[in-house]
């Protein structure tokens, strides 16, 4: 590996780690991944990233129109190297598309767009193939041993970074769900206090009254509770303090 090539790869890793530190949205991260990949794995002229959704496949990011068109040809034909990599979790290389007979429906249209070779690499998150990084070249035999090593190394680092980002997204969703649950509980508790005072009943009896009103009006429990509080106080119920995870205390 030449010093220049090694420098590009190290620089690419640094850019991935910077993206992690900035806590980007998933789509922003994926857009950066394909652009960096196209720079690192030379002589690829374009890079696309295919991911699964609802049993199908779609391109979430591409560094150039050529990659987007090549991906779309495969989706339309339901065959091609990127779909092969995605479905079977293996690296798929095309050294000379004109002589490659594996995907005839894809090959015909891809050649018309000037695609001569490609390298598709599965992206694995938590043991599951969730996507495929697709590098396209416009001349035969484009991907040397060095280029393949770069592609494998970069894809592995990209998948590791994507794993972290997806876990962060899951944590953000969990945080929001916990906050929403606390807010709902706070509103319901306030309404129960009002009913207990008005009806001179126990908490269990107040909850039964609230639930009965919810069912009768076909409205959510929290909505009925908020309405009771607003009628009594003249103001909408105040939200509960946000949920704070243990890590935020440390």
Walk me through this protein's architecture.
By secondary structure, the protein is an alpha+beta fold. Helices cover 60% and strands 15% of the residues. It contains nine helices and five strands; from the N terminus they run H-H-E-E-H-H-E-H-E-E-H-H-H-H. The chain has a five-stranded antiparallel sheet with strand order 2-1-5-4-3, with helices on both faces. Strand 1 and strand 2 (56-62) form a beta hairpin. Helix 6 crosses helix 7 (203-217), helix 6 (145-199) packs across helix 8 (221-233) and helix 7 (203-217) packs across helix 8 (221-233). It starts with a helix and ends with a helix.
The parts where pLDDT drops under 50 for at least 5 residues are 240-250
Give average pLDDT, whole number: 84
Adjacency order of strands in the biggest sheet = 2-1-5-4-3
Which bin fits the share of residues in helices? Answer: 55-70%
What class do helices, strands and sheet pairing give?
Answer: alpha+beta
Number of strands: 5
Largest sheet: 5 strands, antiparallel
**Termini separation (Å)?**
44 Å
Q: How much β-strand is present in the residues?
A: 5-15%
Task: Give, in order, the helices and strands.
Answer: HHEEHHEHEEHHHH
CA-based gyration radius: 27 Å
Categorize the overall geometry: elongated
